[in-house]
From TrEMBL:
PANTHER family: REVERSE TRANSCRIPTASE, REVERSE TRANSCRIPTASE DOMAIN-CONTAINING PROTEIN. Pfam families: RVT_1. Residues 1-172 form the Reverse transcriptase domain. This is Tick transposon. It comes from Rhipicephalus appendiculatus. Transmembrane segments: none annotated. It comes from the Eukaryota. GO terms for biological process: DNA biosynthetic process.
Amino acid sequence: MFSIDVEDLYYNLPHEALMHSVKLCITEDNDEMAFASGCGVSVGTFLEILSFYLTSTNVEWKGNTFIQRSGVCIGSKVAPVLSNIFLGMVDTNVKSRLGDSVMKVLRYVDDFFIFVKDLDFSDTVKNVLGLFHECGRGLKFTYEVPQNSQLQFLDVNLKLCEKHVCWQYYPRSNKPILNFNSAHSKVVKNGIDFSCLFAALFKTCTHLISDSFLRQIERLRCSGFSDDVLRMSVQKLIKRMKSTRTIETNPMLTNKDKCAVIPYAHKLSHGLKNVASRFNVKVLLSAPNKMKNICGIIDRKLLGKRTGSDKNCCKVKHTSPVVPCRVGVVYQVPFSCGHVYIGQTGRCLNIRLMEHKRSLDGNPYSHLARHRTEHGCTVMFEKTVCIFTHSDAGKLWRLFISTKRALVV
């Protein structure tokens, strides 16, 4: 096994390959229609805005102004998301081209962990590193192989034994811990020593847990933490471990199948909760009115006053709606040749018409595209009319209405 790390990830992200990976993530890995409806712009417009944002960083050097050609600002909110999307594409391309000598590739942010089959893997390291450089589109990579049967990966040190692998919490950085005599509050200092001791116990195997725990104790003592403070953290840690063990041994807390959520009703809900506890069923009570629903209720009431009813209203903000929004309708789309297309949808009519428009591009697989090709006519989406509306009607009832209407026409 060996590890590969990306050098200066944010500074070296190539813009062209990054935009391509973002486009693939939206169009292939997610719902393009839902994304466009959620952000209010099309995918192409979103990519243009993102490209403008990435290339708007100006740097002044010796009186000259330069525009950033690659990389993303570290303080940017989109930097972690963009880097994760790009490295996801790199990870996918690398895995698809690996040979049989590599068993598994794991990634945590910009650190890769590679498992190999052979003990002598010097040639494999060169091949894999070359593959990373090829798929990285300009990214720089460094690698680390085991030294003295030990390999450091992030804050964990792996010790390679003959029949097993041991691991322990061992921070790579040699910086001292925050001194106890600093001006920080006791809450911050207690959190530091507790997190160090907690990581030493829960990020270390049973064979090395003693050495790891004592090493963290020594680090804390060197930073001015007294034995009384450490003793309080150890007692807190013991309580934490006992509570964790209680949760693991209690089937009522670990079995998710034996849990029921019911609306809260005065007296009745607590009675049901007491009865369910006799059969080891955990009952949770949900509030009927929540703070997050207030804005939605007000919006629906205001929309109902404007339209006369709060039913059949669409919550999607369309950029260019073709017709007024309606939900749960049987609709009729006319052609220039005089024929009409009748369909039904339980969603917003504008979403369905947008899907019809996209089906006209490329190969004519849809009914609208085939009819337009055969008769040489055009589809008049702007003249679409609703011939039946019922918000409570199911799909079967709308299909019946649309079929009956089509037979009559």
